[in-house]
Amino acid sequence: MDEEAKKRIAEFRFGVIHDLLGDRKLTRGQRTRLLQEKAGSEWEIPHTGRTYISKSTILLWLRKYERGGRQLQTLYPEGRRDRGRPRAMDEETAQALCELKRQMKGATLPVIIREAQRRKIIGPDFKAGYATVYRLFKHRGVMNRLEQIEDRRKFEAELPNDIWQSDCMHGPMVEVEGKQRKSYLYAFLDDMSRLVTYAEFYPSERLNYYTDGLRKALKKRGLPRKLYVDNGPAFRAHLLSHATASLGIALIRSKPYQPQGRGKIERFFRTVRMQLLSGLSAGMSLKDLNRALQQWIDTHYHATVHSSTRQTPLNRYLKHAHLLREAPKDLDDHFRQRVQRKVDRDRTVSLNGRLYEAPVHLIGSMATLLFHEDDPSRVEAFREGISQGMLVPLDVRVNCKIRRHHDIVELIPAASIGLPEQERRYEGGKLFDGKGEDTHEL
To answer: Does the residue 35 lie in any domain?
Structure first.
């Protein structure tokens, strides 16, 4: 490359980094946004078919310029050093490919090349073959086998209910309402004792099935301090994060595609396959499968000495039972769905195809509704974090017999519709117990 070409490249590089130099008063946020903007922009890069520049390349140019006394010559392209720098690509392309490889750990060379083309890291005239890119990655130390080995150590909780491991296992085909469907096993395992706090087969991987199993585990065995789960969709749901946080349970998700930290629950699943499922007949019902599972856990798994702890899971768990935290009585309320609704002029709100009557003072305002999908009769309304009471399912036949006087409504005529004397009057926004007395205000 002649001197004129090197000068053009150096001038281009200076044009990219000039507003990042140290004499400009930039906050960290401003600097980060500026870098992101430059890395996301298209450029006409001299003597190359590429149109994008990575953040690492921009920072490299900036360091070279600052350390070189802010001389334009420091931004000249370097001469060739054959070792680790293939002749089929320039240094910027090599650096960008290595950075992409670090971001896409485990990806194959064809996948990386396609992604590099999509991001325009390499142009259509890119000539380097897979062998060349492989040698580049190997020399730069970004191949999987040469990456830094992670420090993975065996661990065990000190006390029961310190850590629960939880995951989902694909089960056998079962009969559900006369149809063959695949089953899924949700299980919860105490890390210290290996006791199964709860396990059940369900007909799908829906979130409500997982929370059903978790609630049963919490009611049966108390509250863990940490819940260690997979990174699947059900475990990333906001409902689960909110429920565990409100109960004082730390929700920990493992890294994607790294199941090593959940080894104990994976080992339990292997035991289920080998010792339980291998001996069951095909085509059984979901109810029969869960009955067999519970019997096997109670009579065999919990009563067998574990190879690691040298104790049975049940005995090891009960040895420190006095330290367990009991689940609160309102446990189910921590797992309610949460939606926003506006109260209409007729005091009604719609939820899952049903209409509910709200208190008069909520008309025209946004209310937060908390409810269970399987219990539509219990819907609680909140405004600005304060409970407004339980909503009443709309009954249009009762409403047609109501005479309204501002905030007081009266059922008419009481005698003609067979109502007792104590139920003649109804105050808007009030609930009544079976005796006709106010219980609490909505």
So the answer is: yes
Question: Which tens digits make up the pLDDT trace of 332-387?
Answer: 888 888 888 888 888 888 888 888 888 888 888 888 888 887 787 888 888 887 88
- pLDDT, tens digit (0-9, with 9 covering 90-100), for 53-107: 888 888 898 888 888 888 888 888 876 554 445 555 777 788 888 888 888 877 7
Residues 212 and 296 in one domain: yes
Looking at the structure, do residues 86 and 171 belong to the same domain, yes or no?
no
Q: Given its phi and psi angles, is residue 106 left (phi above 0), alpha (psi -120 to 50 degrees) or beta?
A: left
* Structural domain span for residue 310: 163-323
CA separation, residue 286 to residues 179, 194, 198, 273, 396 (Å): 11, 25, 16, 16, 40
Q: What is the CA radius of gyration of the chain?
A: 33
Helices (H), 374-438: 396-399
Is 140 part of any domain? yes
Residue indicated by tokens 């050093």: 81
Neighbours of 210 (CB within 10 A): 23
Of 113, 146, 179, the domain-final residue: 146
158 lies in some domain = no
Residues 273 and 315 in one domain: yes
Q: Judge whether 60 and 98 are in contact, CB under 8 Å.
A: no
